Amino acid sequence: MCLREETLHYILEEFYSYVDSFVNPQDAFEGNEKDLIQLFIDKSHGILRMYGSAEELLENVNIYKDFPGNHKFFEINRPYQMRPRIFTNFKNEKYIAKSDVFVILQNMMLNFREVCPKQTHTMIALYLEMRQDNIGMCTEFVKFDEKRFEEMQKKMKEEIKKRQLSKIFIEVFGENIHSSQSRAKTEGVASFYLACSLPVKVLGTIIDENLEMFSPRHKNSNEPITLRVFEDGDQQFLMRSEVSNALIASSTLNKRLDSEDDKYEFHTISLEEIQKNFDTKNIEFIHYPILRAKHRANPISIPIPGKSDEFCILAIDTFFQYFKELILGVQYYQKVDGDNINAIFPALKTIFKSDCTTPYFLFIGDRGAVRRVVISFFENFGGASAKELRKVETDGFTVPFLKNELAYLGLTTTFPEILDYAEVVYAEVDKHKKESVLRTCDLFDAVEHCQLNCVLERLPELKKFVHSQKGCHRVYGFKCEDCNSENPENQEDQKLSILEKEIADLKMSYQKVLEENQQKTLENQELQQKNLRLSVKNESNEVQIKQLTEKLTHSKLAIDDGNYSIPCTSQLKIQCLICEKPIPPGHDQIIKCPMCKRRFHSKCAINWLKEHQQCPACNGELPKF
Question: Which ranges form a coiled coil (predicted)?
Fold first, then answer.
């Protein structure tokens, strides 16, 4: 595991000390890489929070390290840690970089554990790196033929069997290799040499028998010439130096195409121009997408004769990485005064060329081309103090919070217009966020892009460079007049984007109204249910009233001048309204209401009056007995 070295190359140079202070911590975290990243973040006093969570930083480092020849770039003196990357040609056939074939060969050998104890792994890796160094930085590809690799593995097994070490030797080797006693130590060294010699000799045999896979293509080879076609968005282009080497090898070019190149700058030519002007029948074009993690672009090997550790990235990627270092690492615009704000620009003009309309690459060795040119500016402002970005709470941050932070950092003094970009940058950051709410890492992005907008508007030549290198869309909230004039659809896209935002706001408002209506609907439903219960009760009461009315009708009571009388014969039965039982004729245990003259059983009336005062028939007041 080489996570420390890979992380060091990924983070800003100003933050190196927070990771570099860990000496070989990897072994203790084997299989728990996220925990090691979290340890880096915890020990940085919050500085590394600009990279998000430990999981996010690990994910980006894993993206960043995925390129051919990465062990050279990261200066890893141990077995190859990378996973070979498969490419395709224009016929969709699989290809693999020749530098990655060494990785496959190493992994094949390490699978024979009985002859490759762990102590020999470093020596095996050193031997393979030495063989790879002999061919320089080869950027060629070979067909990924699984059958051929199976044959190589079979041959490897046969060679190991021929040179098989005894089991006793392996045991003695394991016992003596770490011994501190003089004789045992000497024997350990000798046995170590013997143990390493077997896999090294086997590897040498495999490489020598398949030299075309492990070395640059020779002039009389029957293998096709392979060329990387770099793909970035809708652009397809090739390095002029690679094209020159390939066309000269195929005897179709007399004068090289890379006369403008120097040791720091590498120019390109479009695929369309190559196919239009040159004979390419013996050339296999290999798709080579430009890969980028969030904060850095993946390095690309440079085919320089005699050198095996030279890498580059696109000039536009150099621009963004440099300004990220300038803004968030050095905090240049928080330290510089207004009079010197553009003092650094003349040094940048020689690197970021506004008149170059085609993509070009810049060398990234040591501190890179940009670092060399502007090193004095970094040194001048390295000792000045600047406020650090504050931590965002768990509920996220808003546009007013962003504006307050820009003022707190002193950026409104350097760029009085910076608050004008806060809202549009905030909207873009919110669109690209990884979590449900905006976090501290998102605040870093917002502060960076607000400053980028100010810089580009103040420096037209840099603005022109970013446009010519097709980087305008990578600056949040940036409005490029040239992009709009070249492509009117962009204006429509911007209008559409504004409309989409307005629609999104309307949707939020509608959702809020909808939720309120849903709440009112629930309340109405509850009221309706209550009304229904009351209606049922009313209907029940109406039925009871109807029944009572019918009983009154059937009783054939006559109302005369407000008094009830019984015109019927003594045979008519009178009913007690309280117990609803008949009162026999001549029954003397009765009580009569003085108002309605209705009769009740005296016992029923006495019990009724214990809880009521009114007559159950007319609601008049009953006398107390």
Answer: 496-542
